[in-house]
Here is the input.
Amino acid sequence: MDEEPLIRWDWIGRNLPEIRELLGDHIVMALLPILLGLLIALPLGLASVRWRRLYQPTVGIMNVVYSLPSLAVFIVLIPITGLAEQATVIVPLTFYALAVLIPSVVDGIASVPTHVRQSAVAMGFGPMRRLLQVDLPIAVPVVLAGVRVATVSSISLVSVGALVGRGGLGYLFIDGWQRQFPTPIVVGIVLILLLALAADGLLVVAQRLLTPWARARSSA
Here is the structure.
């Protein structure tokens, strides 16, 4: 067999619609677990701050889940969620995200200085108002640091789902390997890297927008 070039641009041009479809599928399966994870991690994290005995068992369970091989979890879920279904990938990735997000929420809330909380109470802030206007804004940098880690990890792990029929850009890896054709593999790697960099960059911008006082302090 003649040596195959690393990139065949003609193949990319012919397969752009399929590549775009796989990219869109990959984005959905990577980012939806982060959104679901945040919806679960915020109340669980707040409860763990309020009742500290809840924290260690919760984190312990999440760490056990995080240590499970992703492919094994995907296979176990197939009888429940179905083969080649988005849910088969999204459900495990949500649990993996929780293992990162819950400690981030707890650490973020715990980082709020005691004197700041006391000042808010002295100004007449109720528990909910203090949470929304004091605790969560101050916790944003720590929480978003966890979101960044979980997001990049999720973008990477989606590709494993290709082995059970739904892995977004991971399909390109399987296709290229089966045909001994490197172009799809290179395209998949590059797009996943670009997607991870773009997501991380957007989260950095979001952090700056959500913490204007930090920008003012750094520019002073």
Q: What stands out?
A: The mean pLDDT is 89.
